[in-house]
Amino acid sequence: MTRGNQPVPRLLSIVRNVHHLIASCPVESTTRMERSLEGLATDGSASSQGLLGVLVATMAWACRCDPPFPGSDPNDRRPDLVLEILRAIYALGACVRTEPSGDITTHIGIILCELLRYPSADERLYEIKLAVVSLLLNAPREYGAYLSNNGGIEALVEIMEYQTSLVVVERTSSFAEDAAAVVPILLVLLRLVGIHESILKVVKEAVFPPELEIEFDRMAADEIGKGRSEGKVNAKNMAPLDAPQGTLRYRLIRLMTWTESSVKRSACELLWALCDGNSTQFVLRTGFGNAIHFLGMKGCVNLPAGVET
C-alpha cells in the first residue's frame, strides 16, 4: 500500500485483510502493523503517519485518480476499495484511543465531504455515503463547520430523507434493520445541529419548510388560544398541526412511536432539537399523543405512575 500505483484488486485484497485483522485482534494486529510502518517511514510520507495515514492516502488516491471516480466501467473496483477503507477506519477508531494528528483529521474531513457530494443514484456510492455517516458519529466537532460550508449538511439531509422512507414507507424486515437504517443518520444530524446554528437552520428548514411557516404560525396561535395546557406545555393538540403524509416531518413523527426504542428516542431527540427544546413548539409540530412520553422524560408533563422513562 505504501508503494503506490498498485492494481486496485490487489489493494482491495490487502485492505480487506487489514480490516479483518483490526476487527479480529485489534490490539496485537494494529500494534504490529504500526511497528512495521515505522520501519518504512520517511518524513512526510503516509507511512510516517501510521496505519491511519496509509489508509487515508490510499482512499484519496482511489477517489482522485483517473478516470474520474467512481468510473463508468462496472468492473472498476475503486468504489469497493473506498468502502472497505472506510469500514477499516471505523474499526480502527473503535480500538485505537490515541487522537490522530491534525493533518490526518483534516485530510479525512475533506475526503468525507467529497464523498457525500457524489450523486446517490449509484448504489455503490450510496453505500459509501452510509459508511461516511458511521464515521461521522464520532467525528471531531470542527468537522461541522467544514460540512456546513461545503454542501455536506444538505447531503446528510438527503440521506435522512431516503433512510426514513426506507423504514416508514418501504419497511425493513426487522426492528434491528430499522435501527441500523435510521439511527446513525439521526444521531449524526442531532450532534451537528447542536454544534452550529447554521446547521440547525438548514436541517430545520428541510424538515419544516419556511414557505409553510406563516400558515403554521396561524394554526399554532389558534391552538394556543384555546387555553388548554399541561405542565410546561401550552398546547394540547393530539395530532401534528401540519405533517402531510409523505413529507419528511411526517416520517420523523411516525418514528417517534416506533417499537424499536433507539429509533423512537433518536427521532424524538432530533425533533426536540429542531423545536429549540421548546415543549409547546414540540407538541404543536408533533402532536401531544406522539410527544407525551418524551415530554415526560424531559420533565415537562407528569406521566402516570408505573410508566417507564
TrEMBL record:
Pfam families: Ric8. One of its GO terms (molecular function) is guanyl-nucleotide exchange factor activity. It comes from the Eukaryota. Keywords: Chaperone, Guanine-nucleotide releasing factor. InterPro entries: ARM-like, Gua_nucleotide_exch_fac_Ric8. Belongs to the synembryn family. This is Uncharacterized protein. It comes from Cyclostephanos tholiformis. The lineage of its organism: Eukaryota, Sar, Stramenopiles, Ochrophyta, Bacillariophyta.
